[in-house]
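Lab meeting, action items carried over

1. Structure of the two-component assembly. Owner: GW. Status: complete.
Input record:
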Amino acid sequence: MMFGGSLAKLALFLAVASDFAQLGRQKYAANEFSEAAVEFRKAVKANPSDRNARLWLGYTYLALDDLEAALRNLEPLRESMSSDPEYLFAASKAYTRSARRLSERIAALGGDSARAHEILAYRYRAVGQPKDAITELRRAAELRPGLAGLHLELAEIFWQQRQFDEAAIELAAEIRISPTNFLANLRYGQYLLRTGAYQDAIGPLTISAGYRKYPEAFQLIAYAWGKLGKPEERLAALRGGLAVFPGDQDLTEMCRQFTAENPQVSSRVWSPPLLREDPPPSLPQLRAALARTPIGEDALYWLSRVYSERGQSLLEELEQVAPHSYRVLQEKGLNAEYEENYEKAAEYYRRVVSAQPRLGGVHYALGHVLRKLGREDEGMAEIGLELALDPRHYLACYELGSGRLGRGEAFAAVPLLQRAILLRPGFAEAQTDLAKAFLQLKRWDDAVRVLRSVIANHPKHPSAHFLLYRAYAAKGSVDLANRELGLHQTLLKKSPRGSDIAPVAAK
Amino acid sequence: MKSMLPLVALLLAATPPGSVQFTDKAADAGLIDIFYNGDNVSKKYIIETLGTGLALIDYDNDGYPDLFVVNGSRLEGFPAGREPTNHLYRNNRDGTFTDVTKTAGLARSGWGQGVCAGDFDNDGYTDLFITYYGHDVLYRNMGKGSFEDLTAAAGLTTGPVRWGTGCAFLDYNLDGKLDLLVANYVNFDLRNTPAPDSSRACQWKGQAVMCGPRGLEGGLNRLWRNDSHPGKPHFTDVSDQSGATAPGKRYSLSVTTLDYDRDGWPDIYVAVDSQPSILYHNNHNGTFTDTAVEMGVAYSEDGREQAGMGTAAADFDGNGYLDLVKTNFIDDTPNLYGNAGGRGFSEVTVPAGLGKYTQFMGWGAAFLDYDNDTWPDIFMVNGHVYPEARDVKFQQRRILYRNTGNAKFQDVSAESGPGVMAEASSRGLAIGDYDNDGDVDIFITNMNGRPSLLRNDGGNRRNFLNIRLVGRKANRDGIGARVAIFCGKRTLVNEVRSGSTFMSHSDLRLHFGLGEATVVDRMEIEWPGGAKETIRNIQANGFVTAAQGEGIIRTDPYNWRK
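Predicted assembly:
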C-alpha cells in the first residue's frame, strides 16, 4: 500500500509538473516570459528530474536576460542533453552573452585597466581592425608589463600581416614573461627557422613539442636537425612525433622518406620533457571571485574567457549535431553581427525568418542590421513585425521610436519611446530620444522631467545636460539653463569628441 | 535677351532629376595648373591638410566672372624660381580661360589658404584678400587688369605669423565701406608640433597621423574695420573691442555672413573645427555677441562638438529666413540648421535627408538652385585628410542634394553626371554662372591637383534671373544687400555675400531659379544701411544690374546653349 501510495503520489507529482510545464510553454509562446518562468519553476520544483522543464526554464531566463539564472538551469543538463540542438543552442547563447557582458564590464573599467585594453583589442581584431588592436595591446602592456598573453597576441597580429620581424620581437617578449608558453615557443621556433638560426630554434621547438599538442612541432625540429646535419637527431624527432601522433600522415611520410634515403641511420625515439598548460582558475573559484568587492579585473577576464570558450565549443557541437538547424543560422547571424559584418548577418537572419517566421527576436535582429546597412524602410518594417509578435520587446519599441524621431515624426515617436522605457526603466538612450521628441513638440516640462531622470542615473551624461539646458532655456528658466550649460561644457572639456585625434602620452 | 524659340517652350516642361548634368570642363577651359598643399602620400603636419580656396570675381567688369585660385606649398619647398603661385584666370567668354596672373601682379607664392573678394574702396573694381599661413595679403584692383599689394599701406600687416583661413568682406557698421572678418585656425609652430614618427605622435583610429587641431593652440578671429578714405586705404584692428575675439581661441575655418534675424545688420557664422561654432550677432553698436549656443548652431542637436569645416547660407525652406548648412569630419553627418524666424535654429539634418552618410569628410558646401526650380539645392565636396589612412578613402565623391520642395533633400549625385561622382580630395568650392547661360556652375579645388570646373548642362531648361547689385550709398558691390524675388506663389530670398563655402568666394551676382515663371512680379532690395526699393515686372532669363536708387540700369544678353 505504501509503495502503491508512493507511486500514486509520484504520478500525481508528475502530472502536476507536466501541467506547469505545459502552461509555461503556453506563456512562453505568448511572449509572457515572466509568467512562463513562474510556471517552469513550479514544474522543476515538482519534478527536479524533468530535463525539458529545466531546459525551458533556461530558455525563459535567456528571454528575460537573466543570464546567471539561465546558466544555473542549463549547466546541470550538459551531460544528459549533449546532443539536443535546443539545449546546445540555449547553453551556447547563455555562455556567449555572459562572456560579452563580462567583456563590457571589463571594458568599462576604463583606461587604467590593462584587461580593458586587452578586451578592446580582441574586439578590434574581431571586426578586422588590427591597427587599433595593436594600439590597445601596447597600452595594456604599458599598464601591466608582466601580463602574460599580450605580446603573444601582438605577435599573432604581426604574423598574420607577415611582419615576421615585428612578430619575433613580441614573441621574445612573451617568452621572457612565460618561458614555457606553447604557442610563443612554436612561433618563435618557426621564425628562427625562417631566418636560418637552426640551432637556436631547437630550444623553443623542444618546449612546444613537450606539450604534445601539434605534430608540427616535431616536424619542425626534425627539419632543424636536418639543416644542422644531424641525421640521428632528425630521425629521433620524427620517430618521437610518430610515437605521440601515430596516425599523422606528414610525419609518416617524412619518416618513410628519410629512412628510404638514409637506411644506415638508426636512432632512439626522442621524447621531449612533458609539459602541461596551467589550467585556468576553476569556474567555482571565478564565480566566487565575482561576488567579492572590488572585483578583480583578472577574475572578470578569466570568467569571460571560460564562458567564451564554452559558448564557442557548444556552438561547434551544435553545428555537428544539427548543421542545418535554424538555431545554427541564428547563432551565425549573431556572430556576424558582432563582427559588424552586417550583410552576412542579414543573410543568416533572413534564412531563420524563412524557417521560423514567428521566432521571437529574429525580426528585430534582421531589422536592426538592415538599419545598420542604411536600409531604413526595410529595417523599420522588420522591427515592426517583431513588435507585432512581441509587444513587450523594448528594443523594438526603442528603435521604432528613434527611427520615427529621425524622420521628424516626433508625435509618433513619443508613445514608442515611452513604452520602451516602461519595459526597461532607466533605458537612457530611449529617455534621451524621448526628451528630444518632447523638445520638438515644445513639451518643455515633459522634456525636463525625463532628462532629470537620466541625469539622476547618469550625472556625467553631457548630452542630457545639454538637452536639459535647451528645455530650461525654452521655458525661460535662465539660471537653471545656464547651470546645465555650464555642466555640459565642463563635461565636454573632460571627454572631448570631434576629430578624435588624441596625442599619445610621451614614452 | 533670350529669343523665344518654340523649342524653349517645350524644354520648359518639368525637368526631372538626371536631366541636369555636371561635366568637368577644367582641362578644356585651360585650368591646367596644379595647386599644392603638402605631401600627397602622408601628411606630417596639419598645415598640409586644409587645401586652398578659390574665388569667382569679375575683376575686369566685362560681365563674365573670372577665376582666382589660391596656391599652397609643401614642407620641402620647391626649387628656386619654380615655386607655385596663385593664379588669376580671365574668362574668355567662350568657355575658356586665360592665365593672366603675372600681368595682373598676383603671382605670389607661400602657404596660401583662402580668398574673399569685395570692393573695399568703392572704386567699382572688386578687390581681393588672401589668407595665408604667414601673413594675409590685400590686393587692390586697379581697374586696368592689374592689382597692387596694399597690405602694408592699409595697416593689415600683422607682426606675428597667423594661420588665416576663411574670410569675408562685410559692412558690419553700415557706414558704406566694406570691413573684413578673418578666421584664424591654429597657432601653428613647426618646432612645437610632434610629427607622426616622433615619440609624441598623435593617433587616429590607432594609426600614427599628424597632430591637431586638438592639442594645439587655437587662433583668434580678427575683425578689421575699414577706415579708408579716397586715396588712403586703412583698416583698423577692432578685434577685441568688437567682441570678435571674445569666444576665445578657436580652430576657426569658414566664414558665412547672413542677417539671420532680419534686423538689417549683418551677422556672421564661423564654422569651427572640433569646438563649438560661432554665431556673431551684430549688436548694432560696433560689437558682436556670440549667440551660437542659444541659437542652436554651436553644437549638434544633442550637444556634441563637431569638426565644422565648410558652411553656407540660403533660405532652403522658403520661410523667408536664411538657414545654414555645415560640413563636418568623417564618422559624422553634416548639419542643416533651419532658421525658425530669427528666434533660433533647429537642426533638421536627419528629417531633411542629409543624415544618411557618415563616410564622407566634408569641406566646401554651397546652396545653389542647380535646376532652376526655385528651391535651393546643396552641393558638397569631400576628401579625407590622411592619405595614409587605411580603410578609408582619401579621394571621395561629391554630393548633390536636390531640394524636393518640402524641406527635404534627395541625393541625386549618381544621376547628375560624371563631375559629381568623380572622386578627389577636394576642399574649396565656388559657384557662379561662368558662361552666362542661365544655370549655375561649380568650381572646386582639389588637393595637389588641378581645379575642377563642373559645367551645368540642362539647368537652364527652366527660367532664371541673375542679378548684380551696385551700391551707391551702400558699398559698391552691394555686399550685405538682401534681395527678395516675388514670383507667383513663391518668394525667393538671398543676400549678396563675400566669402562662405570653404575658404572661397562665389560669384557676387545672385542667381534665382524661377521655375516656369516668365516674369518676376516684383523684386525688393534691402540695401545695407536700410534703404529699400522695389522693382516690378522683370522679365525672366536675364542678367540684370540694379543700382541703388536707380532700379535696373542694365540687362545683359544671355548665352542660350541647347
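2. GW to write a short summary for the group page. Key points so far: DSSP finds 26 helices and one strand in chain A. Confidence is low (pLDDT under 50) at residues 496-507 of chain A.
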